[in-house]
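Lecture 7 notes: from sequence to structure.
We start with the chain below.
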Amino acid sequence: MNFFKRYASNLGALIGLVVLTLFVFVALFADVLFPVSPWQSVGDPMLAPLEDSAFLLGTDMLGRDIAAGLAYGTRVSLLIGVVSTAVAVAMGVSIGATAGFYGGRVDDILMRLTEFFQTIPALAMAIVLVAIFNPSITSITIAIAVVAWPPVARLVRAEFLSIRSREYVQAAIVIGQTGPRIMLTQILPNAISPIIVTASLMVATAILTESSLSFLGLGDRNLMSWGFMIGAARTMLREAWWMSVFPGLAILLTVLAINLIGEGLNDAMNPHLRGRKG
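Predicted structure tokens for the same chain:
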């Protein structure tokens, strides 16, 4: 209950939650709101917003409904953002927990591996991976997860190094509990708060990365996405500004909402930190 009170006291976090809930609703009911495929031409080309009541956000150069494209693009962005983050967090927690708990040579090897991945620019590596495995929603999700796990691993390692020396962990070792059991039942529950906050922010980064890949023509060609819409309309910016502006606003609002939620979670889960901020 205290968690929800602290979260609700952050106005920005509440606004972010409302905005994200709206996007989730649109993603879930895109088929109901727009029964026609977003790839299908449904009106005159390049209709401006509000020029035709049937197409409130206008149409593109092929007569496709911009609003329908945004709705279906919401589904793609949120799906890739959530799934890739879940995979990255699982990888990062596994590697970071193992390194932090066992230490020694295991820690050295795993941290050198983590540093290797961190030396390569994330977007560049994602581009290479997607290009190698052919652009699809699966390859994009895997590529984003592969480039996103190192910060999680370093965070979890630091938490495990701090917690493993505490009395209750040492007591679990003395009574003969196995390493994996201690990590899962004693240490991880006490390190979960910063992991959740980091994961919420990683979703926003994953959405930006997916939009960048789609903008560069490396998105799933069978799925409408915000990045694809911006990339397809980049040569028409002066003649039809709405074709680029509306998907760009969708990306901006989604990323901003997720970052506000992440800030709210940080305040709610770390009340002492919030007190220092005040």
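Points to note: Residues 2-277 form a domain with the MetI-like fold fold (CATH 1.10.3720.10). The chain has a mean pLDDT of 89.
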